[in-house]
Amino acid sequence: MLLKELEKYIGQLLEISNYHDYCPNGLQVEGRPEIRTIVSGVSASMDVLQAASAAGADAVLVHHGYFWKNEGPQITGIKRARISHLMEHGISLLAYHLPLDAHPELGNNAQLAQLLGFQAEERFGEQNIAMVGRLLQPMSLQRLSGVVEEKLQRRPLVVGDDGAIIRRIAWCGGSAQDYLPAAIELGVDAFLSGEVSEHTVHQARESGVAFISAGHHATERYGIQALGAHLALQFGIRHQFIEIDNPV
User: Fold this and answer.
1) Per-residue pLDDT averaged across 50-68, rounded?
2) How many alpha carbons fall within 13 Å on the CB side of residue 177?
């Protein structure tokens, strides 16, 4: 299919015009006009780009792209090397940030819920990206942290009483630790996100609401896979997800 048609379809699917973001959503680097093979990854690192060119990809689909709000505009150093690699191989870069976090089916938070056994009931936080709901099966915080470790394949940092029973939970992957006060106001038993800050630990301890830091990369690697799989099924193009290990 044509690159422009693909970009238009994803933009409508994720409703990117509804979000005020820190980076451009959609086509960030233009390559050849026809798309037969897509490689997806969490971030457009050089490792992902090199794997994409080795796989003969026409486009790279990521959650974390380039040209962030507080980033310098100069195309030098690491940024120059990455963009040069894309252009030399005729590969397009398509990036979707907040719209991919929020999508009710393919989004990172929706995919986390499906993976971890959460039942979403409502949304909260910046642009209603975060979710709140219930565990399909109530369990102790210790057991829940074990489920998170098993499903995400990394040990989370957990703040709270291991024996506390978790029924109501809020979650938002990535660097959403500052949503914890809003989650506390919603009366949840626990909040799960990707990263943790020093003050977050104190908020969790003093509120009695458990906090689970499950990794930025680990909590945001499922939406992009779901989007790539959807595109492959919808248009008959090839899709391959590239997992680059990241401990953060």
Assistant:
1) 98
2) 22
Contact indicator for 238, 38 with CB cutoff of 8 Å:
yes
Two tokens, residue 25: 């959503």
Instruction: State the average pLDDT over residues 50-66.
Output: 98
The Cα-based distances of 4 to 1, 163, 173 in angstroms read 9, 53, 30
Residue 220's pLDDT is: 98
Condensed to tens digits (0 to 9), the pLDDT of residues 190-212 reads 999 999 999 999 999 999 999 99
Give the CATH number of domain 108-219: 3.40.1390.30
For the chain, the domains span: 3-96+222-238, 108-219
Report the length, in residues, of the chain.
248
Spell out the CATH class of 3-96+222-238.
alpha beta
Which residue's entry shows tokens 């005729």?
A: 90
Domains 3-96+222-238 and 108-219 share a fold: yes
The answer to whether the predicted template modeling score (pTM) of the entire model surpasses 0.85 is: yes
Strand partners, 211: 159, 191
Q: Alpha-carbon distance 189 to 160, whole Å?
A: 10
